[in-house]
Backbone:
């Protein structure tokens, strides 16, 4: 497949950051996100982590634009990376950045070691009966809120559904023992493993008539609760 101008620019930017291996301040770097997992498009940005050995060289997470490509950069120490990734693994809701990353350089070998370790232990949380009860109760509360606002006015009900749908979808992911994904990747991911749920969600988001929208909402809630049966 031919690469677009945006993709070529992104490749050039990645090459540029790879050359930081010649800078003694940096011990490693990796790219994660769409560029690393081969879902990069003309609308994608780059996600890059730079590892510094001196904590005084750390920088706050920032976004810069290079030649029309947005680049999200995190500059941190290896210990900072470990702390954050371990927290992600403990929550078991999404994959650590390193797992699906492309390591640009690794002077100490620690990034490769961490990636191997995290990949071996990284898995979605297995729900206990108590977890299922809590998730089910939360979905029922959300649905009750929708029903209550629906009796008051349609606009408030639509707003409640729209602001709650992300939590409902995340719960569906957890109930299916899957890692949650970013909103912009929901349909790309859902289409691969649950096309029916994906179609219902698309219909819900695109439906403009209240009566039809609430019916699709009901189906989504039904699908979700079915996965939370005890």
Residues:
């Amino acid at each position: 497949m031919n690469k677009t101008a945006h993709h070529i620019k992104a490749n050039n930017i990645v090459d540029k950051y790879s050359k930081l291996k010649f800078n003694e301040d940096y011990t490693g770097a990796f790219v994660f996100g769409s560029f690393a997992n081969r879902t990069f498009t003309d609308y994608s940005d780059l996600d890059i982590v730079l590892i510094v050995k001196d904590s005084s060289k750390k920088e706050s997470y920032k976004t810069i634009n290079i030649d029309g490509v947005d680049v999200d950069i995190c500059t941190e120490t290896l210990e900072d990376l470990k702390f954050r990734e371990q927290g992600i693994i403990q929550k078991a809701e999404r994959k650590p950045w390193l797992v699906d990353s492309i390591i640009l350089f690794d002077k100490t070998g620690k990034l490769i070691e961490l990636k191997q370790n995290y990949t071996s232990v990284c898995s979605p949380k297995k729900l206990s009966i108590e977890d299922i009860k809590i998730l089910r109760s939360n979905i029922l509360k959300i649905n009750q809120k929708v029903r209550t606002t629906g009796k008051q006015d349609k606009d408030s009900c639509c707003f409640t559904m729209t602001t709650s749908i992300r939590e409902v979808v995340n719960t569906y992911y957890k109930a299916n023992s899957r890692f949650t994904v970013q909103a912009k990747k929901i349909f790309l991911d859902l289409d691969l493993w649950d096309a029916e749920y994906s179609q219902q969600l698309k219909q819900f988001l695109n439906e403009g008539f209240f009566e039809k929208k609430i019916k699709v909402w009901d189906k989504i809630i039904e699908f979700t609760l079915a996965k939370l049966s005890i």
User: Anything to note?
Assistant: The helical segments are 5-18, 78-91, 110-121, 129-152, 154-175, 186-193, 195-206, 210-226.
